[in-house]
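Input (structure):
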């Protein structure tokens, strides 16, 4: 259980009359990345003749797949694990806006560009943090080059997970061992939290008679978030993450070509694909703080990344309005060293931003703990120290 907690997994105890039953739970991010990792090794076995993780990595980096290109498609709200996996193995990573329709559309365009049955594009998986995912075969099933299905499929995911568990079991290992191997390969442990904030509270947000009150509260928070995107407020944005504006260097704006956002294109049925503009700052330690808007609308929110001097993502957050529920979603993640992880850094890194958004004042239930307090308590309960 201690090993599972150290790896960033959620451990629960269920007391019974005959003793306690302990469970180890993976988040959607963790389990989907684990499935993608196993599919990557399966691709190595099929195309390169080996499942050894280090051998697969070295041979992919040497370009031994020839014309084939492996792809992993996920959303801007998904764990850094996907980026780490893509970086270390030479996989092409694609980020889309939130919503599985965005993943399916990008998979469709990649299939169409792949050249029929003998296509060059191999899509390992589509995955989103909210629980939807899909895995693809390595061979097209028709002459048009169609491979992966464009919608989430629990049955295929369960089968892929069972196959991975069975392979580990036959080798005298477990899924926990596979996850630890993956974490070691990727060079860090990811600790992820999501806050679902009903504003100003859940009873108000879900009351049809108080829609205007709820919308006004949500708009106030989104307007504060949007204010951080104004050049005049860049000092405040940097300060929320612990940096002095006078000690950082603005970098040229650039297009995030690995991020594809779909927007309506007038009366056309097919959407227009755009790449957001990234605003970036060079930090005193050689790292970068970067941000981009999650789409053209206020509700699409904002993603903020902090990278180290090597360009590796150390912590990030995304704040956006839900497209299906009366709430605000806040996604938060830190990456910690495998040997000395400190998951409490989730609280230290993001509490100033949550206070700025007034999530220390709003609460799920009137008179109950604030969303900030709930978040801090959740982190401490999942990852106890000492």
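Output (sequence):
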């Amino acid at each position: 259980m201690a090993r599972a907690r150290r790896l960033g997994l959620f451990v629960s105890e269920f007391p019974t009359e005959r003793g306690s039953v302990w469970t180890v739970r993976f988040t959607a991010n963790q389990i989907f990345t684990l499935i993608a990792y196993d599919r990557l090794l399966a691709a190595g076995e099929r195309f390169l003749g080996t499942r050894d993780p280090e051998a697969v990595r070295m041979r992919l980096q040497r370009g031994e797949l020839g014309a084939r290109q492996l792809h992993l498609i996920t959303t801007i709200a998904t764990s850094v694990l996907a980026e780490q996996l893509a970086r270390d193995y030479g996989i092409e990573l694609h980020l889309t806006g939130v919503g599985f329709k965005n993943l399916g559309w990008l998979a469709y365009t990649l299939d169409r560009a792949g050249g029929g049955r003998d296509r060059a594009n191999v899509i390992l998986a589509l995955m989103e943090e909210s629980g939807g995912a899909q895995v693809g075969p390595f061979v097209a099933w028709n002459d048009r080059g169609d491979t992966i299905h464009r919608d989430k499929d629990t049955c295929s995911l369960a089968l892929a997970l069972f196959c991975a568990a069975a392979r580990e079991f036959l080798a005298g290992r477990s899924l926990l061992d596979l996850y630890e191997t993956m974490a070691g390969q990727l060079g860090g442990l990811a600790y992820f939290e999501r806050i679902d904030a009903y504003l100003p509270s859940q009873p108000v947000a879900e009351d049809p008679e108080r829609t205007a009150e709820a919308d006004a509260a949500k708009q106030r928070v989104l307007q504060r978030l949007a204010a951080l995107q104004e050049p005049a407020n860049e000092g405040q944005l940097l300060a929320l993450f612990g940096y002095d504006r006078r000690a950082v260097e603005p970098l040229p704006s650039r297009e995030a070509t690995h991020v594809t956002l779909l927007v309506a294109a007038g009366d056309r049925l097919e959407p227009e694909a755009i790449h957001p503009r990234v605003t970036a700052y060079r930090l005193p330690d050689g790292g970068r703080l970067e941000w981009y808007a999650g789409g053209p609308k206020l509700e699409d929110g904002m993603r903020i990344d902090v990278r180290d001097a090597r360009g590796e993502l150390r912590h990030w957050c995304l704040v956006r309005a839900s497209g299906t529920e009366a709430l605000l979603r806040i996604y938060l993640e830190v990456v910690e060293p495998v040997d000395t992880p400190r998951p409490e850094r989730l609280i230290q890194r993001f509490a100033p931003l949550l206070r700025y958004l007034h999530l220390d004042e709003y609460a799920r239930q009137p008179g109950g703990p604030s969303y900030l307090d709930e978040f801090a308590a959740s982190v401490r309960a999942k990852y106890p120290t000492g």
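Notes: The chain has two domains: 28-186, 189-253+277-382. The CA atoms of residues 28 and 379 lie 17 Å apart.
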